[in-house]
Design goal:
The complex is a heterotrimer of chains A (493), B (345) and C (306). Chain B is 74% helix and 1% strand. With 345 residues, chain B is mainly alpha-helical. The chains are: A alpha/beta (493), B mainly alpha (345), C alpha/beta (306).
């Protein structure tokens, strides 16, 4: 019998329909993958399954019985556990305490600590994790914490476990272990729903796949019946996302920025490369390979422990982001909400923040000059609508990213470093941001792009430096192919 | 448009509450509605108003300064000490002593503020802890330098009696002086004038200068501000220096007004300043607040105290009323945020 | 685990340390004193009197202060108990709140004395204090005489302070004999601070109520009232205060609106307290309440002295 059935589930947020009449069937002892681009509605669907969000329309049934009023607690008692990307654990509590959080065994108000410890240890061992159940969760790695959440599902006798992008931040070895655990859960008859962007993993693990696009379910079927190319086309709605554009520009002969033997802790070791005016250099590799660390050193956020940097032939030692900006090096951070924008400030105020000195006279800001500057930048970066008095926090992801772009366009920097420039933005904004990045290189800027999306890297970069575990593995020029990048990124030591 | 305040309903909500309270007070409190009482309220609000302005700068950066009350006390006893130091009067004269004492008050306040800011910004210690420690240190220092005795009018038979009294009177012209207004008996109190001037200056700094913009950026998102080239540490040191200097100035004004600097002066005044800043719309989460809000918040508390005094309401009820107003201000804030669908996240 | 062990051993070490202190034997009587505060002239003089008495009678004093913090004063008394003091003298932060600390000392059979401010319970051998009722009465008589039996009076009160309550009771009792004298306002001054007193007085002067005389229940209240009166330029109003601090004496002597002050004798209170402690330690009996008289200073009495 089908464990969970969703029929015509619709969820609207102000200004956007996140889910539009979505159907879903989950059977016990199967693995069901949810795929789709960012904003397709996968996370919303998981929240509805978890009872954290209530659908505006539609019917949910559990083992054939309709679910009247789903709440997180009700879903938990029914046997549903959802493991979100941001893990829901209390870092200061022990693994055992976390596993039993909210369902502590005991009598007359006293915790049965030894039973808790014993059963928690058993559940962890079942998942192949041998740790002291008294260890605070904050001391565990992300992969270990994930297993603690899975153990929590086990002691609650969960019948459905849903995971939101569980493998996004794991190493290859950790992914393999997690995959084995998911297979074990399936063998125990537990239904698993998981969201992932890694198509290889999906095809290896999933029994069936549901593809979401813009809140619609566009395809459901057995995983065996679809190849990767078709899957991508179904997700994106057209054949190929990014075409590699051959650059119609000429890079300088001499590098503008040189990195020589730069090291910092274990994250980056003896990193060397050059970047020239008029080219886009791709920094490839897996998450955690040390690419962002390189960017942070170049942007003056972190200091290198060894090695040297030079800019326009002169030694370059930025002591702060302000130093780097003055020198003409700007960093487009990967987390725009945390690092890129002041969400409570207006677009105008965000955009002019690094260049306020240009619009102040005698210590006072010149309101007219500032508005003009901000308006020019916002228009150039294609912020929509181009209303510079809106609060940054009220914009969509793509528009927020464009505001960050507008901010850095104003600085007239010579070297621009983009860290995951299109993470979490829709396809339209993505195309626009790509156009802007190419235009910058065409205008003679030196551009460095870090992207975990291989197609994006291939489409944008003229040349790529691939990193793995803090070291440069190699440099690739034409022909730049996904296979070549992946070979370097994964090459075993 | 003044940026960085909350939605208009919150901003004008406090002003509306102030007006409503004044109307009620006019009806029920004898003697409330008069020019003389208005200037008295402004005088009483001036010390807390000045502390609140400094506190608002700090709160906008998502910081807190618990040391301002003690700092007022410390600055006050040093000001009174300098003012009545015979050596100083001998060198710079009575008026000169008043000026030097004022500068000492400002300098001590700013210096301790810079220490607060530096410890917070460069050693990344939580400002709550830094300023809590400084609060205790400053109060202890004030008691230490005075031996616990207020410094003020010299005892009879003091060899420099005339000079000391003259110096205290000179500062009294600043802290207790009044600008004559035609048609009124009392005139406008100088401290209130100082406070209003500071409100204008603070509004100018916050809305129209690069530093002001940086203050909001640091409070709104410290990391993003730093990556945008904002000198975050310098900004933090700056706001604590401003809060300290405000406390120092408040100390100067209080000594001027009372002709005495007591070691216990300003006890717990930091809490009144925080309350006024929050009532005036500043968010302890940072990024939000304004100079006019600070004035409104301080006035609201001042009008409440004055009206309840004029009505002869018992002190304990006054405390309860003040607490209730703070809670209402915060509840109102939460309510408007929910109504706006959490756009400020 | 190790952290917890460290904590336990630290506590044990501390306990051992305090125990060893407690068992130390002295030849001279050891007397623990906790004052309300040391940041006040009155208590500084009280301390001086205690010290004088202790020096002349051969007693070792250990003086600390609660600084308006009941919890702190309570732990100070408990420390004295642990240290095995021969007697404990308390000037309580809070008359009722200090009772449990006194009971702790009672359990350890250490005699407890209160100075200046009394306690509401526990076994206190003797209470040595100014006769605040008498002081208030004295000021009341003075005000009545100066008003020639008729006028409006305001009191800047501190209703949470027990000694002030006595002063006010005495003052009100004395005035009750004069039907034409009315007490028209009694605002409370938070923490007895001078700027708060000035604000209260400013507001009193704003109301229509005509006021002829003001009783400031301590000198900060009186001097705050004086500052308000001077700022307003009001004539025909006078202030009486309590404590006669140097600042207040100066104002009285220079002929301002502050005309009289009740003067307590904290030095004598201190000396009398130690004398009482020594008597009790020698096994003599003492009265439960030992009043120290309060006098009054006026411009005449001050200028006569000079």
């Amino acid at each position: 019998m089908t464990l969970l059935t969703l029929r015509g589930i619709t969820k609207r947020y102000p200004g956007v329909t996140a889910l539009d009449a979505v159907d879903l069937d989950i059977d016990p002892g199967t693995v069901h993958a949810l795929v789709g681009e960012n904003g397709a509605g996968k996370s919303t669907l998981l929240k509805i399954v978890a009872g954290a969000e209530r659908p505006d329309a539609g019917v949910m049934t559990w083992k054939g019985q309709p679910i009247a009023a789903p709440t997180p607690r009700e879903a938990l008692l029914r046997g549903v556990t959802v493991i979100y990307q941001e893990l829901m654990l209390a870092p200061n509590l022990s693994a055992a305490a976390n596993i039993y959080l909210g369902t502590e065994p005991g009598h007359r108000g006293l915790l049965d600590a030894s039973a808790m410890r014993h059963r928690a240890a058993t559940a962890l061992a079942d998942l192949g994790l041998v740790i002291d159940p008294d260890q605070p969760v904050g001391e565990l790695s992300v992969a270990q914490r994930q297993l603690v959440e899975l153990a929590r599902a086990l002691v609650r006798d969960a019948q459905l476990v849903a995971l939101d992008e569980p493998t996004a931040t794991l190493t290859a070895h950790e992914v393999a272990h997690l995959v084995a655990q998911i297979e074990w859960l399936r063998a125990k008859g537990i239904a698993v729903v998981f969201v992932s962007h890694r198509l290889d993993e999906i095809r290896r693990l999933a029994d069936s796949i549901t593809v979401l696009r813009d809140g619609h379910r566009v395809w459901t079927g057995p995983a065996a019946g679809i190849d990767e190319r078709t899957l991508i086309r179904t997700m994106v709605g057209r054949d190929v996302v990014f075409e590699r554009c051959p650059p119609n520009r000429k890079a300088d002969a001499e590098p503008v920025l040189s990195v020589r033997d730069v090291s910092r802790g274990r994250a980056m070791r003896n990193v060397s490369f050059d970047v020239k005016r008029g080219e886009i250099l791709g920094l490839g590799g897996l998450v955690g390979a040390g690419r962002s660390e390189v960017a942070r050193v170049l942007a003056g956020i972190d200091r290198p422990e060894a090695g040297s940097l030079s800019l326009r032939g002169q030694p370059y030692r930025p002591r702060s982001p302000a130093d780097a900006i003055r020198a003409g090096v700007v960093y487009f951070p990967e987390d725009r909400k945390r690092q890129g924008l002041v969400l409570g400030m207006r677009i105008r105020e965000n955009v002019t923040l690094p260049v306020l000195s240009r619009v102040s006279r005698g210590g006072l800001l010149q309101a007219g000059a500032e508005r003009h500057l901000a308006q020019t930048a916002a228009t150039r970066a294609d912020v929509r609508p181009p209303d510079i008095e809106r609060l940054a926090g009220t914009l969509s992801g793509g528009n927020q990213q464009k505001v960050v772009l507008a901010k850095w366009l104003l600085t007239d920097a010579e070297v621009l470093i983009f860290d995951e420039p299109t993470r979490g933005v829709d396809i339209g904004a993505k195309t626009e941001i790509h156009r802007q990045i190419r235009a910058l290189a065409d205008a003679g800027k030196a551009v460095i792009v870090i992207s975990s999306e291989l197609p994006e890297l291939i489409a944008l970069a003229d040349r790529a430096v691939v990193m793995r575990e803090g070291r440069v593995q190699g440099e690739l020029a034409e022909p730049l192919t996904p296979e070549a990048v992946m070979a370097l990124a994964f090459r075993s030591a | 448009m003044i940026a960085h305040t909350r939605s208009w309903i919150t901003r004008y909500g406090v002003v509306a509450a102030l007006i409503a309270m004044s109307v009620v007070a006019t009806l029920v409190a004898p003697g409330f509605f008069s020019l003389a009482n208005a200037s008295t309220i402004l005088l009483h609000v001036s010390i807390n108003g000045i502390l609140t302005l400094g506190m608002t700068f700090v709160i906008i950066t998502a910081g807190i300064d618990l040391s301002v009350g003690s700092l007022l006390g410390l600055a006050g006893v040093l000001v009174a000490g300098a003012l009545t130091a015979p050596g100083l009067i001998a060198v710079v004269g009575v008026g000169g002593a008043a000026v030097v004492a004022t500068l000492i008050g400002l300098a001590v306040g700013a210096a301790v503020g810079i220490a607060n800011g530096a410890l917070t910004a460069y050693l990344s210690i939580n400002p709550f802890i830094v300023t809590l420690a400084m609060m205790t240190v400053a109060r202890g220092a004030a008691r230490l330098v005075t031996g616990g005795v207020p410094i003020g009018f010299p005892p009879m038979g003091d060899p420099h009696f005339q000079d000391k009294v003259a110096a205290l009177d000179a500062l009294h012209a600043f802290g207790g002086g009044r600008i004559p207004i035609p048609g009124t008996a009392q005139g406008f109190p100088v401290p209130a004038l100082v406070m209003l001037a500071l409100v204008f200056l603070s509004a100018l700094i916050l809305d129209r200068t690069r530093f002001g913009r940086y203050v909001y950026a640091v409070g709104g998102n410290e990391e993003a501000a730093r990556l945008s080239g904002v000198p975050v540490r310098g900004v933090k040191v700056g706001v604590y220096a401003i809060a300290g200097a405000c406390a120092g100035l408040a100390g100067v004004l209080m000594v001027g007004q009372l002709r005495s600097g007591g070691p216990d002066a300003g006890l717990l005044y930091e809490l009144n300043a925080i309350a006024a800043a929050v009532i005036g719309g500043a968010s302890l989460m940072g990024g939000i607040g304004s100079a006019w809000g600070a004035l409104t918040g301080a006035l609201l508390i001042g009008v409440l105290n004055n009206a309840l005094d004029l009505m002869g309401v018992q002190a304990f009820w006054q405390e309860i009323a003040k607490g209730a107003i703070i809670l209402l201000a915060v509840l109102f804030d939460v309510w408007t945020k929910q109504r706006n669908g959490g756009t400020t996240q | 685990m190790t952290k917890r062990n460290l904590g336990v051993s630290a506590v044990l070490a501390l306990a051992a340390f305090t125990l060893s202190c407690g068992h130390k034997k002295h030849d001279r009587p050891q007397v623990g004193v906790t004052l309300l505060t040391e940041a006040h002239v009155f208590y500084q003089n009280l301390k001086q009197g205690l010290q004088q008495g202790a020096d002349s009678l051969g007693v070792d004093l250990h003086v600390v202060a609660g600084e308006w913090d009941l919890a702190r004063q309570t732990s100070q008394v408990q420390n004295f108990v642990t240290q095995g003091m021969d007697a404990i003298v308390i000037a309580p932060v809070n008359s009722s709140g200090i009772v449990s600390a006194i009971e702790d000392a009672n359990h350890a059979h250490i005699p407890v004395f209160t100075a200046d401010i009394s306690a509401d319970g526990g076994q206190v051998v003797a209470h040595v204090a100014s006769d605040n009722l008498q002081g208030g009465r004295l000021l009341g008589e003075y005000v009545a005489a100066r008003l020639k039996g008729g006028g409006n009076v305001a009191i800047l009160d501190q209703p949470t302070v027990a000694s002030v309550r006595d002063r006010v009771t005495g003052f009100v009792d004395a005035l009750a004999k004069y039907p034409n004298i009315r007490i028209v306002a009694r605002p409370a001054v938070e923490r007895g601070l001078r700027d708060v007193a000035k604000q209260k007085m400013d507001n009193l002067l704003t109301t229509d109520q005509h006021i002829d005389a003001v009783f400031g229940t301590n000198d900060d209240c009186a001097l705050g009232a004086l500052a308000a009166i001077q700022a307003a330029g009001t004539k025909n109003i006078f202030v009486v205060g309590y404590d006669a601090t140097p600042e207040a004496r100066t104002e009285i002597a220079s002929g301002t609106a502050l005309v009289a002050d009740a003067v307590q004798d904290p030095v004598t209170i201190g000396r009398r307290t130690i004398e009482t402690v020594v008597k009790v330690l020698k096994g003599q009996s003492v009265p439960a309440i030992i009043p120290v008289p309060v006098s009054i200073v006026t411009r005449d009495s001050l200028t006569l002295k000079h």
